[in-house]
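Dear Dr. H.,

I hope your travels went smoothly. While you were away I took the liberty of generating a structure for the chain from your last submission, since the lab meeting agenda had it listed for discussion. I wanted you to have the full record in hand beforehand rather than looking at slides cold. The sequence, exactly as received, is reproduced here:
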Amino acid sequence: MSTAHQKIDELVKQNKILVFMKGNKLMPQCGFSNNVVQILNTLGVPYETIDVLADPEIRQGIKEYSNWPTIPQIYINGEFIGGSDIAIELYQKGELQEMVEVALAS
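The corresponding predicted structure, in token form, is as follows:
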């Protein structure tokens, strides 16, 4: 296991709601990352972000870790949920809210 993989694994396990994104929650650096931040802010839940632009090893590593080619990537309770499109879809169905509530209650 690479060091990037181990680091990602620890981050995912340590944070109930974690977003690997371009930029951070205060200053998203792409529209897709911004979508995810807006949704999570709307839900009013605590979450952490990792700026992949600040760490090329993580930027590449996260794509291999999840087997998902794009950023942002959302993890809830250690489980990979998806990216911006999936977040929007789950949010519109009300499923994302349930997921985060379950994660925060555990």
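Two observations you may find useful: Strands lie at 17-21, 23-24, 27-28, 48-51, 73-76, 79-82. The first strand starts at residue 17 and ends at 21.

With kind regards,
E. W.
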